[in-house]
Design goal:
This protein is α/β, with parallel strands linked by helices. The protein has eight helices and six strands. It has one domain (4-188): Aldolase class I (TIM Barrel), CATH 3.20.20.
């Protein structure tokens, strides 16, 4: 199946494994990528940037297909060393990053300078529009069906997908073949406005 997402990320199927804390290790990411989707290593599951670099290397040993790394930007008193995690991603040759939580805006210059494509998780139309404005390449749309990222607007995936102006990925809540067909047909028809 050829979609804006498959073309953007160089994958065979429009299926992206999102970041999942304590699950998104090299084995799962490589398996998804080897099956034609986009596997994702969960960056902050690795306690240090050095451990993330090792996990990226392990994944490269298991697949020669594209995979990405998830970075979740959460408010905290002691933030993880995000610039060092981004350096590990860049130095590991990873070209796709999925961001979640807060806006990745302050990290976009470093990601874009490294030629990294950015997918940002969005729970609302305003977040999707902001992601496009700051230079994200795609959005991961998390409607209220999504587990773990419910947002605050109670808008379902299919409405958010229709409102997205950039290549969207429907996240979670795709629990039937009819929902999958609807999500994929949305991606199939996507065309960037002039």
């Amino acid at each position: 199946m050829k979609t804006a997402i498959t073309e953007l990320f160089g994958i065979q199927h429009p299926i992206i494994q999102g970041g999942m804390h304590y699950v998104g290790f090299a084995e799962l990411a490589a398996a998804v990528s080897n099956a034609g989707g986009l596997g994702i290593i969960t960056g902050l599951t690795q306690k240090t940037p050095e451990l993330l670099a090792k996990e990226i290397s392990r994944c490269q040993g298991m697949t020669n297909k594209p995979f990405g790394v998830n970075l979740t930007f959460l408010p905290s008193f002691t933030a993880p060393p995000y610039p060092e995690y981004i350096a590990a991603i860049r130095e590991g040759g990873v070209k796709i990053v999925e961001t979640a939580g807060r806006s990745p805006e302050q990290y976009m210059p470093a990601l874009k300078a490294a030629g990294i494509k950015v997918i940002h998780k969005c729970t609302s139309v305003r977040h999707s529009l902001k992601a496009e404005k700051i230079g994200c390449d795609a959005v991961s749309v998390d409607g209220f069906e999504c587990g773990g990222h419910p947002g605050e607007d109670d808008i379902p995936n299919m409405i958010l997908l229709r409102a997205s102006a950039m290549p969207p990925e429907a996240t979670n809540g795709i629990f039937s073949s009819s929902a999958a067909r609807a999500a994929w047909s949305r991606r199939w028809r996507w065309a960037r406005p002039a």
